[in-house]
Every structure is written in C-alpha cells, then in structure tokens.
Amino acid sequence: MKKRIYTDTSVIGGCLDVEFEKGSNKIFAEFIAGRSILLISKLVTTELENAPQSVNNILKQVPKRYVEELVFSDEADNLANSYVIEKVIPQHSIVDARHIATATINRANVLVSWNFKHIVNLDRINGYNAVNLKLGYPMIEIRTPTEVLNYGI
C-alpha cells in the first residue's frame, strides 16, 4: 500500500532551497514515480499563489493520478482552533494548525514539513496528538521528508 503523504508548502519550496533541496527533491521523486501519494490541500495551493513560477512547476511534475487534493473543511477548521485553544500553537500560526488538522481529518499516513518552529517539533507534535486523542481523532505522524524516505529498504 502506498503511503499517503501530506506535504506542506515548505517541502515544495525546499526543492529550490540549498538547505532542503536534497530531501525535498527525493520525496518529490517518490511522488513522480508513484511510490507514494502526494496529499495537498487548498491551503497549500493558496500559499503557492504568490510563489515564483519555478516553485509552482514542482507540483506540475507529479502525475495527477498520484495526487490527492484535500478540502479544508469546517471539521478541520474546528480541530485547528482546538490546537490554538489548548495552546499547542499560537493563534498567529493558525495556518500551520490547519495543515495538521487537514492531514489528521483525511487520515494521512504522515505530514512532511521543514517548519521546525510550529510543525516538526516534538513538543508541538505531542500537543497535536494529545488534542487529537482527546477529541477522538487518530494520532498524526509529523516528520521531515528525509525521515520518510524508503532508501531502498
């Protein structure tokens, strides 16, 4: 079964960033080859509206059959607001909470990001999962792209 990987904007932009290009490009190679399914939401596409065309072109390389576009729902919005209410993440970072909530609601196998302040952060991950469990949602795996790559195993 293919992994369904919610990918935030930092990973897409990371394909063109010296610090993150290796991991980002490797995970996009997985998507392009169809070894994993790329999950993106309207949140991601909205964030990319003002990005350079070179960043937007990265998404276009992935065949549509390996992309699942997710809706940001009222249910996900409520869950994101719960993360803020429970002080897992500050209100000014609600968009990051919305990514996590969307991935959780849609049962992504993992969310990948390079955002170490608000997303790939052990204390916050524990907080997101505590809220998820409290409200009856599954725990969500949150990792960097390099942590989910298969490396031919």
What does this structure look like?
The protein is of the alpha/beta class and 153 residues long. The chain has a single domain, classed as Rossmann fold. Helices cover 48% and strands 13% of the residues. It has eight helices and five strands, in the order E-H-H-E-H-H-E-H-H-E-H-E-H. The protein has helices spanning 9-14, 21-33, 42-47, 53-60, 74-85, 94-105, 122-134, 145-148; strands spanning 3-7, 36-41, 67-70, 110-112, 142-143. A five-stranded parallel beta sheet has the order 3-2-1-4-5, sandwiched between helices. It starts with a strand and ends in a 5-residue tail after the last helix. 39% of the residues are buried. The model has no long low-confidence stretch (mean pLDDT 95).
Keywords:
153 residues; alpha/beta; Rossmann fold; 5-stranded parallel β-sheet; 48% helix; globular
* Main sheet characteristics: 5 strands, parallel
Order of helices and strands: EHHEHHEHHEHEH
Our Rg estimate from Cα atoms comes to 15 Å
What class, by secondary structure content?
A: alpha/beta
> What is the CATH homology-level superfamily?
5'-nuclease
Please report the total strand number as a whole number.
Answer: 5
Write the layout of secondary structure elements.
Blueprint: E1 3-7, H1 9-14, H2 21-33, E2 36-41, H3 42-47, H4 53-60, E3 67-70, H5 74-85, H6 94-105, E4 110-112, H7 122-134, E5 142-143, H8 145-148
Parallel strand pairs: 1-2, 1-4, 2-3, 4-5
